[in-house]
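Journal club prep — side note

Before the paper discussion, L.F. wants everyone to see what a predicted structure for a comparable chain looks like in token form. Sequence:
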Amino acid sequence: MPEKNELSVPARNAKMPEALDSTMRINAPTLDSLPQLLQDDKIPWLDKRRATKEFLRKELILLKERLDRAVKVERGRLELATEAELARLNTLFAFEALRTQATLQRLFQTLGMEVMENLETFMIEYAKQTSRHKKEIKQSKEIESSMKKRLLDRTDKSFHHLIGTIENVVDNLFSKIEVTQQYNKL
């Protein structure tokens, strides 16, 4: 049920043919022509309202496209950064493995059987270090997926909220104009 300060207006003007309505959608006014359109007293206010909504819808769609491109760029940057971090961790892991292997070979060459007990401790430390590197790789993958999901959710929510807010503002503005016109006629 409409509130007292709102008017219920049909979504489509019965006088306006279908072809003209679709033409208005395609040829939505530009930022330069919108003020002239709104100030022209020969154009009915419903047409002004429709033109304003179409202009805002067109601008919001363009904004959404820009946001989508920005999201794609950020997603690409995030993927590249994640791949670089994974490559860095893999390189670090491989380097540590080679260094440890070289150290082990030197130990076998220089030491006798009495040092083998200390070697066991060294191998345990090496295993801990290896598992720590694997955990870092796994954590970076988990962070990547959650960041992508949050970025997409936040973008979609912001866009839908913005469209709803602007449509409410336009509806309220034209409702007040109609009430003022009704009042002035009395």
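L.F.'s comment for the group: Residues 18-185 form one domain. Keep this in mind when we get to the figures.
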